[in-house]
C-alpha cells in the first residue's frame, strides 16, 4: 500500500506541476493577448483621431467653399438687383422720351388735313393774286 500511496503522491505532484505550468502558460498567453489588445486599441484610437482630423479638414474645406459660393451668390443677387433697377430707370426714361416726342410730333407736325387746308389756302391766295394782276393790267 505504501507503493500505491507513493505512486498516487507522484501522480498528484505531476498533476499539480502540470496544472501549475498550464496556469503559468495561460497567464503568459493572456498577458500577451492583453498587450496586443491594448496596442490594437491604441492603433484604433490613432486611426479614429486621424480619420476625424481628415473628416474635419474636408468638412472645413467644404464649409468654406459653400460659404464662398453663398457670398458670391449674394453679391451676384445684389448686382442683379442693381442692374434691374438701373434697367428699369432707363426704360422709364426711354418711355418718357418717346411720349414727349409723340406729343411734340402731334403738336408741331402737320397732318394731312392741315396740308389740305394749307393747299386750299395757297390756291385761294394764288387766285386772289391772279385777280389782282388782272385788275392791275386793265
Descriptive account of the structure:
With 138 residues, the chain is an all-alpha fold. The protein contains two helices and no strands.
Q: Extract low-pLDDT stretches.
A: none
* Strand count: 0
Tally of contiguous helical segments? 2
Shape: rod-shaped
**What structural category arises from helix and sheet content?**
mainly alpha
| Gap between N and C termini | 196 Å
Biggest beta sheet attributes: none
Helix amount, in percent?
over 70%
> Roughly what is the average pLDDT, rounded to an integer?
86
Helices and strands, in order, run as HH
Radius of gyration: 58 Å
Indicate the proportion of strand residues. Answer: under 5%
Topology:
Blueprint: H1 2-108, H2 112-137
Please summarize what this structure is:
The protein is 96% helix and 0% strand. It has helices spanning 2-108, 112-137.
What key attributes describe this structure?
138 residues, mainly alpha, 2 helices
